[in-house]
Design a protein that fits this description.
Number of domains: 3
Structural class: alpha/beta
Strand order of the largest sheet: 9-8-7-6-10-11-12
Order of helices and strands: HHHHHEEEHEHEHHEHEEHHEEHEHEHHHH
Number of helices: 18
CATH class of the largest domain: Alpha Beta
Strand content: 5-15%
Radius of gyration: 21 Å
Largest sheet: 7 strands, mixed
Distance between the termini: 27 Å
Shape: globular
CATH superfamily of the largest domain: NAD(P)-binding Rossmann-like Domain
């Protein structure tokens, strides 16, 4: 590494010593930027790296709400407004006990480059709360009621609304923030701001949402994989695929894989993994979607009713299949470690397409790159969701609704552009086929050039 990169990394580690996820994300990006830093001395002169690793603004606030028993509860809310050089802040809201500054700063930092790669004018941000909608505060083993989720969302937005806007910061959904939560958040924003505007994406179709938005991240992940395989004249037809997670990203990735003739062998959640040796049927997948989105249940329940599926309690998706061609981590950060990577490589894996944010540990990434398989980082291959959010913003601005076919065609085009830009950037700097280097450089240079042009701000 250059002395400049080393010095910035040292500063980040010292200033953020208690934020391991953020440090990991910064190291993953900065350690690949030497080739472009060397030919652009103006980046160091303008302290681009130092400015890029510091959020433009962090908002942290109290979220008081009342549960169904009348007990007052208090959670912590956040919004990280990381970088607005190329457009308004854009990034999801996550409701989960794991949410803290480190996690949200890593997600916001990644979002800057992901949004840059989409070719759309969007800056990077992220937010959320340590609120857990999957656990009732007064009844162990039960979820929060719809009324409790609504009251929490309304309290959360009562503070957040003053910091966001259609041309300032446009949040979306993320982990545990789906259509229900976005609806409650949007309703409260409209109530507080007294304006109807496209301030949130992932909305329902009846109030400004976009067709294909729920499917977009999962579909986009598979479209990116298609493009990687096409470089070598290959397709997804007949490929054995393992997927982690069972939310929107995982299930719609599975749906698209099935449409393209691949076999989906696994899905997972916190209870464990289901494995279908011959590949899941469309009916099985639809039943899982219903279980997750309507009944909000666990895969363990599904496995009890389905003889074709084996269930591995407390086990992830990576070490249950005998033959693996492609792996798609679609659950959460650092879910796929070095041992998992060894298993996948030993059992024939030739492609890993990240659908989640930073799901592979540094050790796993090193093994994938060392084996020279096709590996795409989440900032590139899971950008379909935020890309379609950008398309939703465009529809809201025009007060129109596009057809599903039009949105899907645009998504395919965006994912191809992301792939091609990453592939070409890697080749240009002597790292042909390395999508980590390519995505980082392609995403970074667009933002860096904008920051230079706008002066020290």
């Amino acid at each position: 590494m250059s002395k400049y990169v080393e010095s910035v990394l040292a500063q980040v580690r010292a200033k953020n010593a208690n934020e391991p996820e953020f440090i990991q994300a910064v190291e993953e990006v900065l350690t690949t930027l030497d080739p472009v830093i060397k030919v652009h001395p103006d980046y160091e002169k303008n302290a681009i790296l130092e400015r890029m690793v510091e959020p433009e603004r962090i908002v942290m606030f109290r979220v008081p709400w009342v549960d169904d028993k009348g007990v007052v509860r208090v959670n912590r809310g956040y919004r990280i407004q990381m970088n607005s050089a190329i457009g308004p802040y854009k990034g999801g809201l996550r409701f989960d006990p794991s949410v803290n500054l480190s996690v949200l700063k890593f997600l916001a930092f990644e979002q800057v480059f992901k949004n840059s790669l989409t070719t759309l004018p969007m800056g990077g941000g992220k937010g959320g709360s340590d609120f857990n909608p999957k656990q009732s505060p007064h009844t162990p083993g039960k979820r929060c009621s719809d009324a409790e989720v609504m009251r929490f969302c309304q309290s959360f937005m009562t503070e957040l609304y003053r910091h966001i806007g259609a041309d300032t910061d446009v949040p979306a959904g993320d982990m545990n923030v789906g259509g229900r939560e976005i609806g409650y958040l949007f309703g409260q924003y409209k109530r507080m701001a007294n304006v109807w505007t496209g301030v949130l994406t992932g909305k329902g179709l009846s109030f400004g949402g976009s067709l294909i938005r729920p499917e977009a991240t999962g579909y986009g992940d598979i479209y990116f994989a298609q493009n990687m395989l096409a470089v070598n004249g290959d397709t997804l037809e007949g490929k054995n695929c393992v997927i982690s997670g069972s939310g929107n990203v995982a299930t719609y990735a599975a749906e698209k894989l099935m449409q393209l003739g691949a076999k989906v062998l696994t899905l997972s959640d916190r209870s464990g993994t289901i494995y279908v040796a011959d590949g899941m049927s469309e009916k099985m997948l639809k039943d899982i979607m219903t279980l997750k989105t309507v009944k909000r249940g666990e895969l363990a329940e599904f496995a009890k009713k389905t003889k074709a599926a084996k269930f591995f309690a407390g086990v992830n998706s990576w070490q249950v299949a005998d033959k693996v061609d492609c792996a798609f981590p679609c659950a959460r950060q650092n879910e796929l470690n070095g041992k998992d990577a060894d298993y996948l490589l030993k059992h024939g894996c030739k492609l890993v397409g990240e659908g989640a944010n930073m799901p592979s540990t540094p050790e796993a990434i090193e093994k994938f790159l060392g084996a020279k398989i096709m590996y795409s980082p989440g900032k590139a291959s899971n950008a379909g969701g935020v890309a379609t959010s950008g398309l939703e913003m465009s529809q809201n601005s025009e007060r129109v609704s596009w057809t599903g076919e039009k949105v899907d065609d645009m998504l395919k085009g965006i994912m191809k552009s992301i792939h091609d830009n990453a592939y070409e950037a890697a080749a240009k700097y002597g790292f042909k086929g390395n999508y980590v280097v390519g995505a980082n450089i392609a995403g970074f240079t667009k933002v860096a050039d904008a920051m230079v042009a706008q002066g020290v701000c």
